[in-house]
Design brief:
Helices cover 38% and strands 33% of the residues. The protein is an alpha+beta fold and 157 residues long.
């Protein structure tokens, strides 16, 4: 049962990258042209999704702030958050528990932001379904990134 969300260690990142779902790995690559390992270790503060009984890390998630003042001017006191998540195949075995805790986690991760959003690779059907379930809204026009279709999503807070 996934009940814990904690700051990810380099070992957690290495574990998830080694066991990442194929669609998640492809999404990272199509979005950036780089392997997740290259990006996660350097750029993103990450949280680890952990099964407390075993200590197994089954996924990573986080919110990266974007420069909201540059995008929207000084009238926004909080930042725009670029939310992201990736998981191992084991994460799918715990989807019911993930559903139970995920809304709370998104709420905790979103406290410093006026809006959460990002893009998702249209081929990652699991992520698209998950984001819709979590209440994110999608733009009607797909984006092309590195010759792949991506969907822009957001949640105003």
């Amino acid at each position: 049962m996934i009940e814990a969300l904690r700051r990810a260690t380099p070992e957690d990142i290495h574990h998830v990258c080694r066991h990442m779902r194929d669609d998640d790995r492809m999404e990272w690559y199509f979005a950036s042209g780089r392997a997740p390992e290259e990006i996660l270790h350097d750029k993103f503060p990450a949280m680890a999704m952990v099964i407390p009984a075993t200590g197994e890390v089954v996924g990573l998630c986080g919110v990266t702030p974007l420069d909201h003042r540059r995008l929207h001017g000084p009238r926004f006191p909080r930042a725009y958050g670029n939310i992201w998540m990736c998981g191992t195949d084991v994460l799918e075995d715990h989807s019911i528990t993930l559903v139970r805790y995920a809304r709370k986690w998104v709420e905790e991760l979103s406290l410093s932001y006026y809006c959460l959003g990002n893009v998702v690779w249209a081929g990652n059907k699991t992520h698209v379904r998950w984001l819709r379930f979590m209440g994110f809204k999608f733009d009607s026009t797909p984006l092309r990134v590195n010759d792949q279709e991506f969907l822009s999503f957001r949640m105003d807070l």
